[in-house]
Amino acid sequence: MKKKITDMMVLVIIGGFSMAYFNDISRLAQREKLVVQGLMAVVLVLWVVQAVRLFIEIRKSVSDNKSPQTQQNKETKQIHNQPTMKELMANKQVLLIILAAIYMIVFPFIGFFVTSFIFVLAVNLLMGTKSKLQLFAIPTGLLIFVYILFILIFKVRLPAGIFI
């Protein structure tokens, strides 16, 4: 059940960030807005599918645990198994959400490329990448691709910051 609650929190946070981003792009030109609206429609469909799946799983687990004795035993176990801050920080989903929130707050000030490099590097470390070549090649390659695609081809201005 704890995993389902964590999944639900992730869905709510992703939905909140998506709605904030959608609100932010409402000032874009019509052409750019159409691309983002299409992507947001896909995100919305995936979000709804995941929410329905999660709702069905929670409903099923609640109906499986309706007997009073089972419920009392589970409540006793839950009281003793409350996650500590250390356990929460060991959860990769929580850390990814924290990293994403920091990224979204910081990148307008530091700039897209520097912040994105640090973010992708941190995510690689979090996911367990050990090779130093992979640690630095993945964010470098990704940002070169983004630079070529968005700045050179599409002529989109990305937030500039301290270095780039």
Topology readout:
Elements: H1 2-24, H2 30-64, H3 68-80, H4 85-90, H5 92-110, H6 112-126, H7 132-153
Helix pairs in contact: 1-2, 5-6, 6-7
Quick overview:
The protein has 164 residues and is an all-alpha fold. The protein contains 7 helices and no strands. α5 runs antiparallel to α6.
Terminal CA distance reads 45 Å
Structural class: mainly alpha
Main β-sheet description: none
In the residues, how many domains can be counted?
2
Helix content: over 70%
Shape: globular
Number of helices: 7
Structural write-up:
With 164 residues, the chain is mostly helical. The chain has 2 domains: 1-81; 83-164, no CATH class. 81% of the residues lie in helices and 0% in strands. It has helices at residues 2-24, 30-64, 68-80, 85-90, 92-110, 112-126, 132-153. Helix 5 runs antiparallel to helix 6 (112-126). The protein starts with a helix and ends in an 11-residue tail after the last helix. The mean pLDDT is 78. This is Tripartite tricarboxylate transporter TctB family protein. InterPro entries: DUF1468. The chain crosses the membrane at residues 5-22, 34-56, 94-127, 133-154.
